[in-house]
Design brief:
Blueprint lengths: L6 E6 L5 H10 L43 E5 L12 E7 L2 H14 L7 H18 L6 E7 H6 L1 H11 L6 H6 L22
Length: 200
């Protein structure tokens, strides 16, 4: 099927690198769907690339046809709401869970909002990811590429090529590479292992 007739979804847990991937694909030449309601801030200096209507997809999926051939950011818990009437290519971002939790905690602290206990959040995220890992392969209308945020920053060229190939070579790898700024990788885990099967 042609990429022009499919919807490209960038997904993952909150603070898992989805904004970075959106920046990369946008810089690589793919059109993105965003309403720019949530603007850049300290946590995401280059912007969030969010589209508020994705949150209402379960009750109002009418925005989907106009997103064919474009890239949309969607938190992983909302993937269940995507109707099977469309075809999707999902770039699923994974990240060291300790880094996700630390990043979320710092963001909530800046917003003066309370954060749930880390152990509780870790358990909740693991349950969610395990369920999603079982569910996604059963969805015939979805193709999924898992991408490690950590490896995007440690083995950049390899990961960029993987993403470009998954998207039929459409995004420019050279331009995608230019969107990556290692200086913005601020919440590093001391754990050397990368997010993957052990975290899901």
């Amino acid at each position: 099927m042609s990429l022009d007739s499919e919807i490209i979804i960038v997904s993952g847990l909150p603070r898992s690198g989805t904004s970075l991937m959106m920046q990369m694909l946008h810089r690589g030449g793919l059109p993105v769907v965003t309403d720019e309601i949530r603007t850049a801030d300290t946590d995401n200096p280059r912007g969030y690339f969010e589209f508020e209507r994705v949150k209402q997809t379960k009750v109002d999926p009418s925005w989907l046809p106009a997103a064919r051939g474009k890239v949309v950011k969607m938190v992983s818990s909302l993937l269940y709401d995507l109707p099977s009437t469309e075809q999707y290519r999902i770039v699923f971002m994974e990240r060291e869970l300790d880094e996700v939790l630390e990043s979320q905690e710092k963001m909530l602290r800046r917003l003066n909002r309370p954060a749930a206990p880390a152990d509780s959040m870790r358990k909740s995220f693991n349950i969610h990811l395990e369920r999603l890992t079982r569910w996604l392969p059963q969805q015939r209308h979805m193709q999924v590429l898992s991408v490690s945020y950590n490896r995007v920053l440690s083995d950049t060229e390899t990961e960029v090529r993987r993403v470009a190939e998954f998207l039929d070579g459409r995004p420019s790898t050279e331009q995608m590479l230019q969107a990556i700024d290692p200086a913005l990788y601020r919440n590093r885990s001391t754990n050397e292992s990368l997010t993957g099967k052990t975290e899901n």
